[in-house]
Design goal:
CATH topology of the largest domain: Immunoglobulin-like
Low-confidence stretches: none
Helix content: under 10%
Oligomer: single chain
Largest sheet: 5 strands, antiparallel
Structural class: mainly beta
Strand content: 35-45%
CATH superfamily of the largest domain: Immunoglobulins
Number of domains: 4
């Protein structure tokens, strides 16, 4: 059989093959048979060339899906490409399974993948002769921006506001930092230098200790009785999460809470002397206690200052 793709024929893929026949006997050669397009014998076809430039369509990415797109191969083998087959493999096993066959277009959304796993993807085309070779492989980590964090919690301990939060699901890519913002008196939010979510310790422990004094100063300018509101954003390689809802709990307290544990001191108390002891509440209003005042009531309902300026308990 002669190679019709080679010289002297040099037929391209997709060319129709026409032939004519004459008969020869001992006396003479007959006329040629008919040759019309309707009597062409065949079309020269082969496998299409492999698809090119397999890439991810980034806007289609989710936590469990990736979008794929590719270009037609350089040659359809003489017959139009009718569809494509897409397959993927989970690493490290790298055993391919078909995720979509008879795909008519040059793109596909591969869904229901496992977040946090690495995959390889490949595509091949098909014409009426058969399948092409596979495209070059594309390796991707199936991951996305972190999930929405839950609102942070604020509380007052001594002269500090303690701000804590919970790490959201990272959607397959480790969280690299947080942005924690606190409400100012004008209802805008800004980051405190005492809660830098880019620091490893802050990112790991998810807790900040913020002096009350810093929240009553610029730019926050919070006053007695204001609620300390905060919001959190988590970041990973793929970008920021949605900002959390507002979290709260702490209230700005600029005056100390009443002393606790007021009690008689029997070792001091006599018929003429009363000994008292007490303890400070941890909530000191943001500044140290400087002194105490003691009042008494002789069953009249009216308290009279007994001593002031006391510097010890």
């Amino acid at each position: 059989m002669q190679n019709l793709r080679a010289s002297p024929y040099n037929l391209a893929w997709g060319s129709s093959v026409y032939a004519r026949v004459s008969a020869v006997n001992a006396y003479e050669t007959s006329a040629y048979s008919d040759q019309t397009p309707e009597t062409s014998l065949a079309v020269i076809i082969t496998y299409p060339s492999k698809p090119l430039s397999l890439v991810e369509t980034v806007p289609d990415r989710t936590a469990t899906a990736v979008g794929l797109a590719w270009l037609e191969g350089t040659d359809n083998g003489g017959s139009s490409v009718v569809d494509y087959e897409i397959s993927h493999a989970i690493l490290p096993a790298a055993v391919y399974t078909i995720t979509k066959d008879f795909n008519l277009g040059l793109s596909f959304l591969d869904a229901d993948l496992t977040s946090g796993s690495r995959y390889k993807f490949r595509v091949r085309s098909r014409n009426e002769f058969g399948y092409s070779d596979y495209s070059d492989e594309l390796e991707l980590l199936v991951a996305f921006v972190p999930m929405l964090p839950v609102p942070p919690v604020t509380s007052v301990i001594a002269s500090d506001v303690i701000l804590t939060w919970t790490a959201p699901y990272d959607n397959g890519s480790p969280i690299t930092k947080y942005l924690i913002t606190i409400r100012q008196s004008d209802n805008t939010y800004s980051e405190s230098p005492f809660c830098n979510g880019q620091l490893e310790a802050t990112r790991t422990n998810r807790i900040c200790t913020i002096p009350l004094a810093s929240l009553t100063a610029l730019p926050y300018s919070l006053v007695q009785g204001n609620t300390v509101n905060a919001k959190v954003i988590a970041y990973n390689f793929y970008g920021p999460s949605t900002e959390s809802d507002i979290g709260s709990g702490a209230i700005i307290v600029l005056v100390p809470q009443p002393p606790i544990g007021l009690a008689n001191r029997p070792s001091v108390t006599t018929a003429y002397v009363i000994g008292l002891s007490w303890n400070d509440d941890m909530r000191t209003g943001g500044t140290p206690i400087i002194d105490y005042r003691v009042s008494y009531d002789q069953s009249t309902g009216i308290y009279v200052v007994l001593a002031s300026g006391l510097t010890s308990r």
